[in-house]
């Protein structure tokens, strides 16, 4: 039986911490988003998002040291307070109680000292004994060398941590003993070993090869470099924004960074080649030995957080809800001239939870549950058959600002296209077999940010291939027809997903927000993020469709789609400008 169901989800009243809001009102706040017209942005700003985090204006890149402290979530990020291009880099600071609605506070760290005069670059936060948070960050010094510095809160009794003080001991770590001063940056969250020593990793490149340098300290001030990096690779270049943390083998909770639990795997993430790659392995804390299961890019392995536009990410352990949360920087895909014209550049991804898969071979990511509170109008389908070559409109919601969950089932795979052994690059395969190229089983999926006549469309879809021993599921995000404008990049992304289509449904969730589409395939086993800049399919002129361009019919057991209300992002009117002199 097929039916359409339309719901309006009533927003539950939320009791906020009164003191928090009184404090904000006392300092003066200004809202940058209005809920009354959640579905429509100003005509000259059709690409600003409604429920993703972004500052009111100017350049933003890497998330730095997100953390949870005394009931408050803190997000620091790289920010240029003066322009929509990279430069004058500071640590901007925003806070939240739910990781969806945000308050922009004063800038936490600004360049101005000899050890960071040319920029306060990426880093991390760490909790010392007594739950004291500190910041380790990279500074670009007077000689443009990259050095590692420390900052501490001025007042620990302030849960908002509005003021930070740089250590008089800076710099703590400098590029000596042959370390390239231009490739020595992005310290990780530190962790404490069984010997009581603190450890931290710093990204590096030596002789064209990526490395994660290991440093140890008793007091968090004096650091000594290990003779060997904790890991390196001859297959990659510079490792930016490394991350190193444990994940539970069989648990549903996140694991604290310094955990010595034996039932964990260790994740090492490195940002290179415009993507965030990771490896899994076993870490022995006593000897600081890290033995990987499969190394970066070895034997065809290509584990990534996201196979699209997603970079320089950072995780943190949320002690309040016992989960590990991932943030990523989503770059623009237009050009600098467009960024300057619109007055801003860069987004943060929707925060994602991270767990180890049941197979233990990869990570699973999913949008944090708080984002579901933004859902307001719902449309549902059940047991809908999509005939080969058909398109089905999903109406009744605001398609330019939506959350879509859909599953697909296949009755027969005997006629699936034979997988060529040379098809090892999913991105290339998706580029060759776009949404307009028909096969037996696929492409099928959804068309988002589409114009009424489908002149513009971003297609997120699947194909199923048959190999000798099993079936191969390919997930694609096809931006080739995302805009009639010639300027924006229209890169096509792809990933293979570890799914058995004979015995399980192929699921997809896509978060659509005007110029960004974050898609999660196979219940988070593969993620692809895309930036798009439609000219026709904007605001109320954007449409959503399910489609099947294969020759064989596909069934949709369930499809749920919601309009999403705006998140609230407010700023203090007393924000101080940083001193860059």
Q: What is the rounded distance between the termini?
A: 69 Å
CATH class of the largest domain: Mainly Beta
Largest sheet: 7 strands, antiparallel
Q: Report the mean per-residue pLDDT as an integer.
A: 91
- Strands of the biggest beta sheet: in what spatial order? 1-27-39-29-35-36-37
Beta-strand segment tally: 40
Number of domains: 2
The global form is globular
> What is the CATH H-level superfamily of the largest domain?
Glycosyl hydrolase domain, family 43
Gyration radius, rounded: 24 Å
Unreliable spans are 1-31, 34-42, 573-581
In percent, how much strand structure appears in the residues?
35-45%
Please give the count of helices: 3
Q: Helical content, roughly?
A: under 10%
Assigned CATH architecture of the largest domain: 5 Propeller
And the CATH topology of the largest domain? Tachylectin-2, Chain A
Structural class: mainly beta
């Amino acid at each position: 039986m097929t039916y359409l169901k339309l719901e309006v989800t009533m927003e539950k009243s939320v009791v906020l911490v009164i003191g928090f809001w009184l404090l904000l009102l006392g300092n003066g706040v200004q809202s940058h988003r209005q809920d009354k017209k959640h579905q429509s942005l100003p005509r000259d700003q059709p690409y600003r998002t409604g429920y993703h985090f972004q500052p009111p204006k100017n350049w933003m890149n890497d998330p730095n040291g997100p953390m949870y402290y005394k009931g408050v979530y803190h997000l620091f990020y790289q920010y240029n307070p003066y322009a929509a291009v990279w430069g004058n880099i500071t640590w901007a600071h925003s806070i939240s109680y739910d990781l969806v609605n945000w308050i922009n506070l004063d800038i936490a760290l600004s360049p101005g000292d000899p050890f960071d005069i040319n920029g306060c670059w990426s880093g991390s936060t760490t909790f010392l004994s007594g739950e004291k948070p500190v910041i380790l960050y990279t500074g670009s010094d007077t000689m443009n060398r990259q050095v590692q510095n420390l900052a501490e809160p001025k007042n620990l009794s302030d849960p908002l941590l509005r003021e930070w003080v740089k250590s008089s001991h800076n710099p703590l770590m400098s590029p000596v003993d042959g370390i390239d001063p231009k490739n020595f940056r992005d310290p990780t969250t530190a962790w404490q070993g069984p010997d009581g020593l603190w450890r931290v990793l710093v990204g590096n490149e030596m002789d064209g090869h990526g490395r994660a340098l290991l440093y140890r300290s008793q007091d968090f001030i004096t650091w000594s470099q290990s003779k060997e990096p904790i890991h390196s690779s001859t297959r990659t270049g510079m490792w930016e924004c490394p991350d190193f943390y444990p994940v539970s083998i069989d648990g549903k909770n996140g694991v604290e960074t310094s955990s010595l639990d034996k039932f964990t795997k260790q994740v090492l993430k490195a940002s290179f080649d415009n993507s965030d790659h990771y490896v899994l392995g076993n870490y022995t804390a006593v000897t600081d030995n890290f033995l990987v299961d499969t190394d970066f890019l070895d034997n065809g392995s290509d584990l990534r957080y996201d196979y699209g536009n997603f970079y320089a990410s950072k995780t943190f352990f949320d002690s309040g809800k016992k989960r590990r949360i991932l943030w990523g920087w989503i770059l623009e895909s237009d050009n600098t001239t467009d960024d300057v014209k619109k007055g801003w550049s860069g987004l943060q991804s929707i925060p994602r939870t991270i767990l180890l898969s049941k197979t233990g071979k990869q990570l699973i990511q999913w949008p944090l549950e708080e984002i579901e509170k933004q859902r307001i109008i719902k449309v549902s389908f059940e047991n809908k058959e999509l005939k080969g070559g058909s398109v089905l409109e999903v109406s009744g919601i605001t398609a330019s600002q939506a959350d879509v969950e859909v599953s697909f089932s296949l009755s027969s795979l005997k006629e699936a296209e034979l997988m060529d052994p040379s098809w090892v690059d999913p991105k290339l395969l998706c580029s060759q077999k776009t949404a307009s190229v028909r096969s037996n089983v696929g492409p099928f999926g959804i068309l988002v940010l589409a114009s009424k006549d489908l002149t513009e469309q971003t297609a997120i879809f699947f194909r199923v291939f048959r190999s000798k021993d099993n079936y191969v599921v390919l997930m694609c995000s096809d931006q080739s027809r995302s805009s009639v404008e010639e300027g924006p990049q229209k890169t096509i992304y792809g990933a293979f997903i570890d799914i058995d289509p004979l015995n399980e449904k192929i699921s997809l969730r896509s978060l659509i927000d005007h110029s960004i589409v974050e898609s999660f395939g196979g219940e988070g086993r593969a993620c692809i993020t895309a930036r798009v800049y439609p000219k026709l399919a904007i605001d109320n002129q954007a449409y959503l469709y399910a489609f099947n361009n294969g020759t064989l019919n596909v069934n949709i057991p369930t499809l749920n789609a919601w309009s999403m209300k705006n998140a609230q992002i407010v700023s203090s009117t007393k924000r101080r400008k940083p001193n860059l002199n």
